[in-house]
Amino acid sequence: MGSVSARLAVRFALLWAVLFGIFSASLYLWSRENLRRDAERELEVRGRMLADRLAEEFQKSPGALRPDFRLDLAQFLEASGLWSEVRKADGTILFASAAPPGDLERTDRIGDVSLRSAMSGQAYRGRLDQLLLFFGVAGVLSTALVALLGSLIARHALGPVEEVRRKAEQISRENVSERIPEPAVGGGPRELVLTFNEMLDRLERAMQDLESFAADAAHELRTPLATLRAEIETAVQQTRTPEEYQRVLGSVHEEVSRMSRIVTDLFTLAKLDMRQYALQKERVRLAPLLEEARETWAPMAAERRIEIRREGGDAEVLGDAAALRRVFMNLVENAVKYNRDGGEVTLSVSRVNGKALVRVKDTGVGISADHLPHLFRRFYRGDKARSREGGGAGLGLAICKSFVASHEGRIDVASSVGKGTQFTVELPAG
After folding, report:
1. pTM reported for the whole predicted model
2. Closest CA to 76 of 41, 49, 104, 101
3. Mind listing the pLDDT tens digit for each residue in 383-413?
């Protein structure tokens, strides 16, 4: 926090120095102009007084200056700080003061006589020098004071942030469930803590999912591997008939196929998570995809006297046909697989408020409310034994959710135990 507060203090000081410099320069220029104008007015007043006195003298002594007037004029000029020269038209100098000319000058005419008057601007320049000195000292002191106050304010303002940083530094993988206490003051620090705690919530859930995912993946792959090992060990321990070897090979093929599906599904989910699954989006009609899913699973449904019916019209979306086909195939397969014998599966498509809605409804055993919030988690199965017997690993619905999300849509489920389940896929209509 020290470096941050120091940088803020430096920036406060620089900002103040710039603002004070602009103010000082403006005031200096204004003062210089006003002081010079005052000096010029003073010269004008004194020059007129001198011209009036010369005019009176010329009335008394035309074309010449009396000695006593010269003495009075010299005393007047010395007292008023003026330099003066009286010159005739032919260039004859009647009077000139001893002091050198100043930087402020004016000329008056008295008949054919010219009067030049000058005055030094040292007086007003001295005031300007004093003003510059004041600005310099005030600028340095005020900038230092602003830097100090800025540092104190920054430390006070960043204090809660530093407290959050220290407590966040203590949170690691071992105690990721800990949370940062909310500060008593509101505003930015409190919002920062809330945001950080929400991030920790997401991180904790992600870590739990990752741990569960790793354990479930290992378990799902270990089961077929154990079966394969047992089958192979049994087959090699003694000589078998061709029929028995064929049975063993069939079992091995089944377990390898199951492992291959799990690995393929995991790879698909990994690419979706990393957004590396390239969707080939185009205009896709949903009714033909549902019809294809119905025809694919119709034979399995017929074995259990399950009727798959199509209702509703059609809708068009901008999406990846292969990804959406996989979503509907999975939903229809589950509707048939977890239905009761002699049941029904209803497939419908509708368009509502710019959304394409696809509903897959069955009359199966239903899903309890405890399982519904976790249904789309990877490797989650409400009835683990039944799912494993059906060859499922609990990845199908997770893939469905990821595919639907990649189309900026959503998938919901509603179910009643003993009455059935309905999945609803909502997609932006094309």
Report:
1. 0.52
2. 49
3. 543 444 444 556 788 888 888 988 889 999 9
